[in-house]
Design goal:
Blueprint (H helix, E strand, L loop, with lengths): L1 H9 L4 E4 L15 E4 L6 E5 L4 E5 L4 H9 L3 E2 L12 H7 L6 H4 L2 H4 E8 L4 E5 L11 H5 L7 E9 L1 E2 L3 E8 L4 H13 L6 E5 L1 H6 L7 E8 L1 H12 L4 E3 L4 H7 L6 E6 L5 H9 L1 H5 L1 E6 L4 E6 L5 H12 L6 E6 L4 H5 L7 H10 L15
Parallel strand pairs: 1-2
Antiparallel strand pairs: 3-4, 4-8, 5-9, 6-7, 6-8, 10-12, 10-13, 11-12, 11-15, 14-16, 14-17, 15-16
């Protein structure tokens, strides 16, 4: 792989990097002369259960990591959109995360070290395979979420967690909008609970994951029996509690597969109800599905209207604009929509200098974060 990248750099050819290719519509459009897939570069390199660490090749599916660690009562708490068939390399490269980030953080919080190939074909190792490590500049976090524009991530060392003695997922019914919804979410934030995940679902999304067609708060708890029972009792005091199917979280992740475009709004926790109400107007008009990670201030919108995606996104952007704190972050758009909704993410001088240092020929995934000069 290093030789392939080095040759491409020498011959001024551009390279499209991918895992299993299930989410190539994410990020800006890439016009590359050749592809480099890491799907076959998979497998566990090193696993030390006693240290709660594992090192894997980038093409390793999340399901394989889950199976290996599950046998030791451990897990890697990453639940990016899509399915567990996706690769760890793609998850780390894109910095993708789901509801579990509320309790465990994003991929950058789980990665201890990694190996990557720079744009000139040099193999570089940063970080380490142990939790306690001091290694100068934190290049590990720089690479996480860089979308393959700084290097081809080939191997990753990860921090694991011990599985809880028991887990339960329940839902409570919330007011659909307005001040009552804001008051309910404020009560949830101040409640004596420490959920693994807490997701606000619109009625359409609730129905899609096997729950009643209501505005629901889906909560996932873990711990010993006493702790989980106490938290469920606290949750039940906040609203009518509904038992959730075991696969609710997997079905929520899978909704992205049918969407023609996906965007998220980032906002302070207290403004989540305002953004929720603002973008909710497009749910019926444009087939927009909403869910929100309320403890991180993220409202995600999945657009299921291939022919009207631009209209739907324009409406969402206009609706959320009155909420000054809301920042639109495109995840997946079609074709020319990127030019309209996602100006270059690497136009500042520091980003351009970083890109120049790692990929001077701009051959790696050119255009995915905007043009780097």
């Amino acid at each position: 792989m290093a030789a392939t990248v080095a040759a491409a750099n020498n011959e001024e050819r551009t390279v499209r990097i991918s895992g299993r290719g299930s989410w190539l519509g994410a990020g800006g459009p890439v016009q590359a002369s050749e592809a480099l897939s890491l799907a076959s570069y998979s497998g566990i390199v090193d696993y030390v259960p006693g240290d709660l660490t594992i090192t894997v090749r980038a093409g390793t599916p999340l399901s394989e990591i889950a199976h290996a660690t599950g046998e030791q009562g451990q897990w890697l708490p990453l639940d990016p959109p899509g399915s567990s068939d996706g690769t760890i390399g793609a998850t780390v490269s894109t910095g993708s995360y789901g509801p579990l980030a509320s309790a465990f953080g994003r991929p950058r919080d789980q990665v201890l070290g990694l190996e990557f190939i720079s744009g000139t074909g040099e193999v570089i190792t940063v970080g380490s395979r142990v939790v306690k490590n001091v290694a100068g500049f934190d290049l590990t976090r720089l690479l996480v979420g860089s979308w393959g524009t700084l290097g081809v991530i080939t191997q990753i060392s990860l921090r694991l967690r011990a599985r809880s003695e028991m887990e339960r997922t329940e839902a409570i019914v919330l007011p659909p909008r307005g001040q009552k919804l804001a008051a309910s979410l404020a009560a949830v934030r101040s409640a004596r609970i420490a959920p693994l995940a807490l997701e606000l679902l619109s009625p359409v999304v609730s129905e899609s994951v096997g729950l009643p067609r209501e505005t629901l708060l889906l909560a996932r708890f873990g711990g010993n029996e006493e702790s989980v029972s106490a938290q469920l009792a606290e949750l039940g005091s906040l609203g009518e509690m509904i038992g959730a199917p075991e696969d609710s979280w997997e079905r929520l992740r899978a909704l992205d597969a049918a969407a023609s475009a996906t965007v998220r709004f980032s906002t302070p926790l207290t403004d989540v109800p305002l953004v929720w109400d603002a973008v909710g107007a497009g749910e019926n008009d444009h087939g927009v599905l909403r869910h929100a990670t309320v403890m991180r201030g993220i409202v995600r919108c999945l657009v299921n209207a291939p022919s009207g995606s631009e209209q739907a996104l324009s409406s969402l952007s206009a609706l959320a604009r009155p909420v000054e704190s809301a920042r639109l972050i495109p995840e997946r758009l079609g074709g020319e929509l990127w030019n309209r909704f996602a100006p270059s993410a690497v136009n500042d001088p520091i980003s351009r200098r970083v890109k120049q240092a790692f990929d001077p020929g701009n051959i790696l995934n050119p255009g995915i974060l905007g043009a780097a000069q």
